[in-house]
Write a structure and sequence with these properties.
248 residues; alpha/beta; Rossmann fold; eight-stranded mixed sheet; two-stranded antiparallel ribbon; 23% strand
Length: 248
């Protein structure tokens, strides 16, 4: 039987669903990707790994994702980063290792910039900061017109039967939260895992991010045969080893 999530109530009736495991610090907080949720393979596997080690762990759903309130189409990078900051503030104690997958890597960076004193380290898994600009550049003129005129384009997804809802709100708000191309004032340890066969987020994104971070303790780890999800047993073991190396 699946354990029911706990609920964090925010202002204006917003509810954030989460699972939290007690344990010692530093805690680990998992931030999922675009249209993903906290029941994904990496989130659940990392929770099990942390429980066995006795480390505190948190996974949650952004608004419009999974079991949290709201419509996906009403979300944005700003909204979802505020969810992450609220979860960090209300549901964790002491230093945290933030682990962000794909879009979660962007959210992870924004949360760390907002609460640098709370962050012990960052782990990006195919981290995708600024992905809206690349996505917009790759869209055809027809798709761009649909987004601007109708407010949403429903893009087919290879990961879900449901299409991705790409909204004008997502694009415009994302442009207000761009990070690459200028120094990112984070100085904690950072580890960036990326598959070199990732069809969604080019692996050189992690190189650009490593170069932008002000931290001098940044490692980029490439999996030559890795895809976007990095969810195979070997990928998960690499993730566990990376997180474990940061506990000290």
């Amino acid at each position: 039987m699946t354990e029911k999530p706990q609920i964090l109530t925010r202002g204006e009736g917003v509810t954030i669903a989460y699972h939290r495991s007690p344990g010692r610090g530093p805690g680990v907080m998992f931030l999922g990707g675009f249209m993903s949720d906290m029941t994904g393979t990496k989130a659940v596997a990392l929770e099990d790994f942390c429980r066995k080690r006795g480390q505190a762990f948190l996974r949650f759903d952004y608004q419009g994702h999974g079991q949290s309130s709201g419509r996906f189409e009403d979300g944005s990078i700003g909204v979802w980063s505020e969810d992450a900051i609220a979860a960090l503030d209300a549901l964790t104690e002491g230093p945290q290792i933030l682990v962000g997958s794909s879009m979660g890597g962007w959210i992870m960076l924004l949360a760390a910039l907002a609460r640098p004193a709370r962050v012990a380290a960052l782990v990006g898994i195919a981290a995708a900061p600024d992905f809206v600009t690349r996505m917009w550049d790759e869209f055809t003129p027809e798709i761009r017109r649909t987004i601007v005129m109708e407010g949403v384009y429903r893009a087919p997804s290879q990961y879900s039967a449901a299409p991705y809802a790409i909204t004008h709100r997502l694009i415009e708000d994302g442009r207000r939260h761009l990070l690459l191309g200028k120094p990112i004032p984070l100085r904690c340890p950072v580890r960036l895992l990326h598959g070199m066969k990732d069809p969604d987020v080019p692996w050189d994104t992690s190189l650009a991010l490593a170069g932008a971070l002000e931290s001098t303790d940044v490692d980029v780890i490439f999996a030559k045969e890795g895809d976007h999800r990095l969810s195979t047993p070997a990928d998960l073991e690499r993730l566990f080893a990376t997180v474990a190396s940061l506990f000290a």
